Amino acid sequence: MDPLVGAASAAIPPSVPTSAAPLGAASAAIPPSVPTPAAPVGAAGRHPASAAIPPLSPRVIPNITDHHFPSSTGLPRIPLTDHRSPAMPFHDFTLIQAPMAGGINTTELTVGAARAGALASIGAGYLSGTALEAAVTAARQGGAEALAVNLFIPGEPGATEAQWRAAREALAPCYDAAGVDLPDSFAELPGFDEQFDAMLEARPAFFSFTFGRLDKARRDACRARGIALIGTATNRAEARDQAEDGVDAIVLQGEEAGGHRGSVETRGAGQPLAALLEACGDLDRPLIAAGGLMDGADMARVLGLGAAAAQLGTAFLSCPEAGTAPAWRQALAAAGPDATVMTAAVSGRYARGLANAWMDERAPREIAPYPDQHRLTAPLRKAAGAEWKSLWAGTGAHRSRVLPVEELAAALLEECRAAG
Ligand SMILES: Cc1cc2nc3c(=O)[nH]c(=O)nc-3n(C[C@H](O)[C@H](O)[C@H](O)COP(=O)(O)O)c2cc1C
């Protein structure tokens, strides 16, 4: 969870040890913000399918075929198998409610999305192992049986002492401007080992991950428990790597997407979603389109470009059930068409959000590598008003609808069917 944003978000446990915080690696001095290009359009569609696999087998990766599986809604299903439950081999997962760490994916949000027929995700990237298990249990008790739990793959080495000091000093005027005290110490993030083990224990139908590849031992551990894998890619090379690793589906995250870019490189170039779908159309894996999709017509368009399903994040931020802070909701309601910008100043990794102090001349120039910058800015984002919060949102923010989650998810599926 992200201590920065949330009304309904739980705080990072104050002293959970981190599993990966070595010293090293210089962070390139880059301008903190990047303007947003618009999206072109691209290519062809297919809906491969996977076979039902018995649970708890060490070999549960499905064979991808070219079969179509029309669903009860009349929309194509994402061919993701709930490996744990051969009795329910396929779900109608045309729509995925995106994982959004930072307390956005409340139990109410996931349960409502699941009720309407979407695959509900829990963004657990900032949760301790205990909190992760509690979140899964609560969602299940609410009736969301098939869930995708999402974690961040650790990769970047931590900041050197010099980088940490420079980034902290550069943040002093920001804390000052917001009237927030600059702390001497900053909360650690939960360790990946602890999170991953808790995820295995919780045994969700799907484990989705971002910021890199999952190592073979962990992939095998998931397969042994019948947990299907969903990797994330922001370009063809990353998507090919995920396909080589044998994931069950790949989220293709276009540069329109809200939140952190799910690339291996913390500051890698993005690509418009349509171009990304076109570039990856020949990969032998179901593709999940993400980025800037706000209604069912958008979903139908990406299904037509070859996606097996659509993953929407920003569209769900304005649902009353989401853990979105009031200031964030207000900013979403007021957003115009060009309201979002990329910045690395918040966390050390590129992310897209509604423009505020993090994206202009008030932002710090010295930025610690991800995730240390995230730790350094967390107390400011938590205590300050909208100007210094991270207001993550995609390019479709200005098309947000304020609807109960179940109503929104049902409308999205209906609109998609009508447009398809
Ligand atoms: C507030 C917010 C938090 C996010 N957190 C995560 C996350 O924890 N893990 C992840 O894989 N993607 C995360 N994302 C990205 C989404 O999963 C998805 O790719 C993105 O929302 C799609 O673009 P859209 O916001 O334009 O719909 C986040 C997005 C937002 C807006």
TrEMBL record:
Supply the CDD domains for this chain.
NPD_like
Instruction: Kindly state which keywords UniProt assigns to this record, in alphabetical order.
Output: Detoxification, Flavoprotein, FMN, Monooxygenase, Oxidoreductase
Matching Gene3D superfamilies: Aldolase class I (3.20.20.70)
Question: Which transformation does this protein catalyse, written as a reaction?
Answer: 3 propionate 3-nitronate + 3 O2 + H2O = 3 3-oxopropanoate + 2 nitrate + nitrite + H2O2 + 3 H(+)
**Keyword Oxidoreductase on this protein?**
yes
Pfam families (alphabetical) = NMO (PF03060)
Enumerate the GO terms in the molecular function aspect: monooxygenase activity
Write down the required cofactor(s).
FMN
Family statement:
Belongs to the nitronate monooxygenase family. NMO class I subfamily.
Name of the featured protein: Propionate 3-nitronate monooxygenase
Which organism was this protein described from? Alloalcanivorax gelatiniphagus
